[in-house]
Each structure stands twice: as structure tokens, then as C-alpha cells.
Amino acid sequence: MENVEVFDALNKGRGLRATKVFKAGDVIFTEPSFAAVVFDSLSQQVCHTCFRHQDKLHRCSQCRFAHYCDRTCQRAGWDEHKQECAAIKKCSKVPNETIRLAARALWRIEKDGSIVSEGQLTTLDQLEDHVADMSADGLKELKGNVHNFLDYWPHSSQQHEVDRVSHIFGVIKCNAFTLSDQRGLQAVGVGLFPNLSLVNHNCLPNCTVILNHGSQTALNPLFHTQSRIELRAQERISQGEELTVSYVDLLNVSTDRQQLLKQQYFFDCTCECCSQHLKDDLMMAIKEPSDLEVKEVTQLSLKALEKIEKARVEGNYHEVVNLCKECLEKQELVLADTHLYKLRVLSTASEVLSYLHYFSEAADYARRMVEGYMKLYPPNNAQLGMALMRAGVTHWHAGQIEVGHSMICKAYGILMITHGPTHSITKDLEAIRTQTEVELRLFQQNKDAYYNMRETALKKVPMSAMAEVIQDSIKKLFRSK
Asked: Which end of the chain is more exposed for a tag (fewer CB within 10 A), N or C?
């Protein structure tokens, strides 16, 4: 860890700062998880070793809970799973993901000690647990987890005092990091990364964190299961400058972000973005209607967003589209396109319409959404890059090749910094960028020939759903030309 050092960040406690200059896109450090688990809800869909989302997984024949890509992943994960496997068999009931993570962390300490590598800068015992700061409801949940943990924890393992177990649960609540699938499109698990836990929050951070799964190949088991987080510079970082990441999404007004940070992480955010309420005016921007109109449309938007989410979860996608259009009709004359409630409706409408293959209509909503995002997010922001990618692919599907290619190029430039060239989603986006570049040249040379080619291709290869925009079928969309 020669690139960083621990320092006293005053009221923020310990922090990490750079010991050299970094440019945007540099990897500051990488770190494997100390312990990690798949979410309960995805336990049968995601590999418990490499966290890849797969259609067909092999189930552990003993506990019948853990699932793996193949024998390679199962063998690689056995050292971490074997005690968990025995505990699940003994209890005949699988505990929740928080209890499973706590148990894996304590089994790791029991086996390897608190420091598992030369580059580890801190231990789980040294991290803050904020148990003393928890609300009554938080303490009730904590006590329930501790009770269930003690029932789950085998007598053959090292026994721990209640305070020790409570500390681990507190550390998980305040320091656990969400893990994504191999393409970074879905949160699939949670893990503990001690060094990452030392990086403090800023709503406009100079770093971003990405889970890089390495290269999956049966020829090399090491790379087949290699999962690690990368702390990457989003901008130029000077020597001695504190390294920061954002614990929450920027697209909330400062008071909401501060409240969320206080509830989840027990600190008052005083960053420049919060203290100066930067971009709050844009996030709540209106078109100068009366106060009564603003209040009515705001209340209507909140109710509509609840209905939209309910219909989306239930799979009533045509109902989602109708609700979005009704809400947008009310919002148009009152809320600006940078207003948070309007952006959420635009985002949902574009995604669902794309899923239903109404690409031209989806592209219009996606364009407006991205234009709003670009006014709110900083330039090298991962969420902005992903939004541009989706919008670019939607325009490409709609036959709007010029706008689509431009968005895809912008997305690629951002993801090269936030995800790096070896990440699977960056590689897929590079293939799409190359494809759209070829099509753009054809379009510029002969528009009629381009549209004829596109129509022929679509008859042979149906458009993919938006939920699968980065799958191989997208890259092969125009393969017949």
C-alpha cells in the first residue's frame, strides 16, 4: 500500500491520503474482500465464490444452499464455505446475509488472524461500530441478529462474547460494501474490505470504487475466481490530498443526503456540496408556476412514483408506461427537467419502453434524462457513464445512429476512468462503440443503404430487451450486413 497512508482526519476520524500524484483513471489500490456473501434473494442465481450472475448454477450437495458457476468455483470457495456448510446443515435453516457475513468474518479471523496481508492497514476490531449511537430500533435489530448468530455459530468454533459479536455487526452496518455482478449492472452481495473502510465520504468525491471480477477462464483458476475492489481516481489527485468516495448517490438534495448519512453512518456531512447546498436549486427546479401548483404536482409525483414502483415490481410494464405518461403530463408545465421527481419518471419510462421494444419513444425520454443528469453529476461519474451507455444503446436501437454513437462514445470515455479498460462492461461497450462507428460511416455515406441494411438485419435478429443491453446479442445486432 505504498500509494496511500493513514492519517488523522480530525472530526472524521482516520482517513487515507495519497502519497503520490494520481491522474484520472489511475488505480490507487486494489483489495480482495476479507469476507463476502451473496444476498439472500439472489442466493440461487449468483455464484457464491465469484459473484457472477449465471443462468445455471451447481448447488452444494451438502448444505443445498450455496451455488457455484462450476467445479472450479466450488473448489476455490470451499475453504471459505466448509464451516458455513456444516453450520447450515446443523441448523437446517439458513440465517440472513448479515449473520452469514459476520460468521464468515469471524471464521476468517479464527483461521488467518485479523491481518491477512502485508498491505492491510487496519483490522475489523479497529473499525468503528457506532453501537452506542444506534436508535432503539437499530439496537433491537442488532440484538436479534446477535441472538440468531449465537444459535447458528457452532460449538466447535472459537466462542465469542456478545460485545465482540455486536461489534462485528456494527462494523458491517457502517462499513460493508455492496458487490455487483460481473457487468456492474446489479447489486448481488455484500462484503467487508478493511482498507476501503478507511476512505472517508464526500458527496463530490475524487475517487470511485468498482468491483473488478478479472477474466473468467477455466484455463486459469486464479483468474477464474479473482474478485477484488479497485479504488480509482476520478480526477487528478495531488500528493498529500485526502482520498474520498461517496457513500450515497448525489442525486438527492443536501438535507436528504445528510439525513441518510446520519442514519446509516452516524456522522454529519459538512462537505462543500452539502454545506453550500450545491445544485439543490437544479434538483428542485420549477418553471415559475404558483406555489399551490408546485405543491400539488410535488404531492402527485410522490404518489405516482409509489404506484409506478409497485407496478414495476409486479411486472405490469404497460401500466408503468401509462402511469409515467400521466405523471409527466402533470409535471411538464411545473417541474424542470433537472427536478429529481421528473428525472425518476423519465428514467423509468425510458427503461420500460426499451424493455417493451418501443425504442423511438424510449429514446426521447432517455435523451431528456441524460441532459438532466449531465447538469447534476460531475463529469467522470460512474452513474452518469452508465446512464449515457443505456441512452446511447436505446438511440442505436431506435435507428438514431448519430446521437446513439455520440452518447456511447461519451459513456466509453467515462467508464474507461471509473471502471478501467479490463472491466467486462467497458470491453462490451468498446465492441458496441466500434460497431456503431462502422454504422455511422455507412449512414453518412448513404442513408438509404444504411436503413435498408438495418431493416434487413432486424428481420433476422430481433432487438434485445433493455434489460440485456450489454449481452452478446446486442454486439451481434447487425452481424448480417
From this structure: C
